[in-house]
Design brief:
The chain contains four helices and five strands; from the N terminus they run E-H-H-H-E-E-H-E-E. A five-stranded antiparallel β-sheet has the order 2-3-1-4-5, with helices on one face. Helix 2 runs antiparallel to helix 4. The model has no long low-confidence stretch (mean pLDDT 90).
Length: 163
């Protein structure tokens, strides 16, 4: 495994071609990552979600399952991601004010590489699922603020997003 230089993109080889990083020499460690996003909508749309008043069903339950499924399939969506044995996924959806839903996903594994992309994918797909289920009543919704909040484990150690 080639040593990675600080400030260098690890998914590019010495000629600049895309590559999957070889993690075979890394130690298996517990890895945890948490990400968030927001779905911004009309207050009436959020009220319908909370009341269970949408014709497609329980938006929060379906979005939660979609996020969990997405975390487990991230390597099929993001070309350079390693398939990982995901050992735990939580996806929480809660109102953040009267016009937005906050989605937070935490993904866990024990392995050679982190689960940041799995957590980011989980929040994104859960947000898109909310949009899909509510678009009939609010086409102007936005999925925004997708970001990593924290990661733990691995050679680079722990990291937290600045407040």
């Amino acid at each position: 495994m080639a040593a990675e230089e600080p400030g260098k993109l690890s998914h590019l080889d010495e000629k600049g071609a895309a590559r999957m990083v070889d993690v075979s020499a890394k130690a298996d460690t517990e890895r945890i990552a948490t990400a968030e996003c927001y779905v911004v909508m009309e207050p009436a749309t959020l009220a319908l979600i909370q009341e269970g008043g949408l014709p497609k069903g329980d938006v929060l339950a379906v979005a939660r399952v979609a996020g969990i499924m997405a975390a487990k399939r991230t390597s099929e969506l993001i070309p350079m991601c390693h398939p990982l044995p995901v050992t735990g996924v939580t996806v929480d959806l809660e109102p953040a004010g009267d016009d937005r839903l906050r989605i937070v996903a935490t993904v866990k594994t024990t392995g050679k590489t982190g689960v940041e992309m799995e957590a980011l994918t989980a929040t994104s797909v859960a947000g898109l699922t909310v949009y899909d289920m509510c678009k009939a009543v609010d086409k102007a919704m936005r999925v925004e603020g997708v970001r990593l909040l924290a990661k733990r484990g691995g050679k680079s150690g722990d990291w937290r997003a600045p407040e």
